[in-house]
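Entry: beta-N-acetylhexosaminidase
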Amino acid sequence: MSPFRPALFVLFLPIWCAFLHATPPSDLTWRLTAAPDTNNPGSRARLEWPSHTRFDLSAPTWSLRFNFPLAFQPLAPETGLLLHHVNGDVWEIAPLKTFKPGKSFALELAFEAAALNFSLGPNGAYFRPAAEQPVTPLTVSHTTPPASLLSRGPVDTMPAADASDRFQRNQKADGEAEVDVAGVFPTPKQQTLGAGFVNLGANTVIVYHPDFAAEARFLQNTLQQRFQHRASLKEGQTAKAGHILLRRLEKNTADSPRKREEGYQLRIAKGQPIEAAAHAPAGVFYALQSLLTLVPPAAYGGKADTLRLPEISVDDEPRFAYRGFHLDVARHFHGPESVRRTLDVMALYKLNRFHFHLTDDEGWRLAIKDYPELTNYGATRGTGPDDLLPSFGSGARDNDAGSGAYDRETFVSLLRYAAERHIEVIPEIDLPGHARAAIQAIEKRAQKGGDSATKPFEQVTNLRDPEDQSEYKSVQGWKDNVICVCRPDSYRFIESVITDLEAMYREAGLTLKVVHAGGDEVPKGAWLDSPACKTFMAKHGFTESKHLFAFFFEQLHAALTKRGVTLAGWEEIALLEDHGADDPNREFNPKLKQPPARTHVWNDIPGFGREALAYQLANNGFEVVLSSAAHLYFDLAYEKDYLEPGYYWAGYTDTFKVFRFSPHNVYAGGAFDRMGRPIDPAFYTRHERLSEAGSKRVIGIQGQLWSETVPNRERLEYMMLPKLFGLAERAWSPKPAWEMLPTSPGREQALFRDWRRFAHRLGQVELPRLDRLNGGYAYRLPPPGAVLRDGLVHANTAFPGLTIRYSTDGGAPTEQSPVYTKPFRATQSVRLAVFDQRGRGSRITTVTVPQEAEQKGAPTP
């Protein structure tokens, strides 16, 4: 979902460790040498192979392959080497007849755009002596470039992150007065804290209305798993002090659908039972999640005889019905345990839609009964003839992240696990682009002659027109990733997949309500030279390929509607005509409005021309989920630092940027564009505003975590947390007072007041809770900010409450290093890091002390 999402990929752990620890010598080294400038929009780097004596380069057919996210320029002829784009993000270096092998070589490479962190570098390298011969994996190390090379050219005004830059940013959470962090999280609609506390014993009784039996069992299991409490269950309507009562409110007393479906009351008072009351099961479930956020973090993960809870009265309901989180498991596979951990943290913070991105060019991750090749072949990346190309660093290693799939039993269990937490799983089958894994798997099926145990082989033989000579390249670099929308096979295939999805939901005791069908980034040129499509267009009177795209989604919308299933897709599914400019003449497909298709609008990046699209779609009758790339793409790097993983094509996104997102006033939601330049409020004066009816069609917001740079659970949790807290606050909590204010100093002051409390809550309560929940989450610890003023080192953190430790001996701070509590005098350079309660440390921030201060010999603390 980006004009620059392509071949962007992650560097795996051995490469990441090369930045932090001593490692054996690498086979290849990568060093940036030039950034884009006024005269050249591209970058240059030096790729060195210091020694290849263990390989015979005198053979005429050897090759060196690796993944790289951007397009290279051809090599100079005098190198004697050919640099060739294979497909996707796979590149190959091979010898020409003029190549003269030596013991090493170094290549000066020129490529498009800028590579500002290690996620945009070569990875997954391997050497093949000759065709059909075994390959050897190679390691790649990076040289951290100077800050001057971390630039996208003259328009890039964003500074590289350093100690001073972080200190300035962290000051948004600073202040003299104490911050009250007590109460429920995310911020409820209304809460009143009492003066005292109530102790919940280890053998409490959960008394429940029969409508809430499942929620009572969930609470019983949660108390046992998280605190080793042995609560008992009792159906009924009255409870004693010290017990927990799940009480049903009459539905006719709710004054809004959201209150009726998900609203709740929570009462904790001395001498009374703890009471969670709601109109519906979802509401009482969220009351229990609020109760769990009142439990002190120190009680999680251990045995607590009692849980000390504050006296409190809460009346709450969500702002949005749709509170979503999207996880891509196609680019890198994440197993069921990682998904369950994600669902747990979603549930605790009241997110209720899990958008499961199951298929893409680089992998198909769900077993489908009629097409076993989808996972037998389409879920495996590698270098063999029965593998998909090794994208995103999969290389020649046995890499679980590149390969893997959910069998039916596992998927059904995940559906049930989510449903127990009142989370709806929305499967995404990405079509008609982003479909290479499916295309390749069905072609593999045809080569084998089909599977006699399934439906007749003749039903689906190919998802492409075999005679198609169309030339195109997707933004990810694929040349063959679009299914043919003119072949009956494609529609039969989709029908089979949807039918099997419905069966798996039924097996889980659920109903498939929504299918997300992708629809994004179909490259220009697809279908143009397909004989089947030329015949099809003539038959239907179509004159342009865009009519084929519209027809495809009209057919899919109609087919799903007959099944009682809602069609969802990225914003592109609704567009008939779009010239990239924000004007009221943009055309939408009227056939997708009855009933309304659900559009996930992602491209709101200032200057890209679709800033108003979400509001235009809502005003024109479509359901809209705000999925802002500029604010809600969690795969974007937190800051501009070469060692910070993630992309930055839409800018950098930290937790504060998610927190300040303004769903009903998106034009005031960002102060700077992706290059760090201030956004002139006048820029948005011509942009369409939400109508009253359109406002009701903005059904919610969603955070996206694409996984090109996310190869394991640790990285998943690092990129997801703590950004997810900002998402939960904006999705559940009432509209803040500052949201609808125009951009102004007053708006910023009000925003920072709310942020200060939020940041303190994270540092003092929620992040320490994550240290213990489910054995601990690998959330990102922000490097501290620090400055030297009058010889004193001042330090701060983005989330006050986290511990800063420092060293003055040149070594890295450890758990035993001194704790920073106040400014101190330093006579030599200081290294600082933020630590959590488990002893994990952040990346190190360094404050350099000028030489003259070092010579004074002033005492250090």
